[in-house]
Amino acid sequence: MTISDNRRQKTENRRQNSVGGSLNPDFFIGIGDGHRRSTRDEGRGTRDEKGFTLAEAMMAVVVLGIAASGLMLPFSSGAQLRSEGMHRTLGAKLASHLMEQIVHTSFEQIMDYDGYAEAEGQVKDAAGATFSDLNYARFSRNVSCTYVYVPQESGATEPVFIRVTVQVLWNGKDVATINRLVSK
């Protein structure tokens, strides 16, 4: 078999493979440089071809994808924890500011805060203006006040303690709660 006959045979084999004939190992020519594959060449023995098969390339893509997702996982969970920490910090600040405002009110007027609530996006500062910053958009606050009787007091006298609870929610989830006992 001459060299030109050999080329015609390979061309014919490729044509058969492209229209659904049987697969010839010579049809799979490698893609890269790293892997050597030995094939038989009619008339000349064996020769080495560099490259990867399609299956090897697909496996490499799968392995790299799994490795990349494993590397990204700590970064995404770290960002989530940072965001939650920021919400808790802002929530504690909002609860503290409202508690200070209540404590600086006269004892007789503290019970007026019982049931006080600010809906999401309607949280107010000390001056009564609604926060316009987007960081405060999903926060809400509510207050409950209850009289506290100590065992030494009788129920007939006026109470001298009020327990004030300020709860701050972010997106409906409790992020900060402060309880304080206020006396006359």
What does it look like?
This protein is of the alpha+beta class. The termini are far apart. It contains two helices and six strands; from the N terminus they run αββαββββ. A hairpin with a 3-residue loop joins β1 (36-41) and β2 (45-50). It is rod-shaped and about 120 Å long. It has a domain at 58-183. The longest helix has 50 residues, at 54-103. The model has no long low-confidence stretch (mean pLDDT 80). The strands form two sheets. Strands 3-4-5-6 form a four-stranded antiparallel β-sheet, covered by helices on one side. A two-stranded antiparallel sheet has the order 1-2.
SSE topology:
Blueprint: H1 3-18, E1 36-41, E2 45-50, H2 54-103, E3 117-118, E4 139-148, E5 161-170, E6 173-183
Antiparallel strand pairs: 1-2, 3-4, 4-5, 5-6
Structural class assignment: alpha+beta
Poorly predicted ranges (pLDDT <50, ≥5 residues)?
Answer: none
Number of helices: 2
Order of helices and strands: HEEHEEEE
Mean pLDDT: 80
What does the largest sheet look like?
Answer: 4 strands, antiparallel
Q: What percentage of amino acids are in beta strands?
A: 15-25%
How far from one another are the termini?
Answer: 113 Å
Helicity, in percent? 25-40%
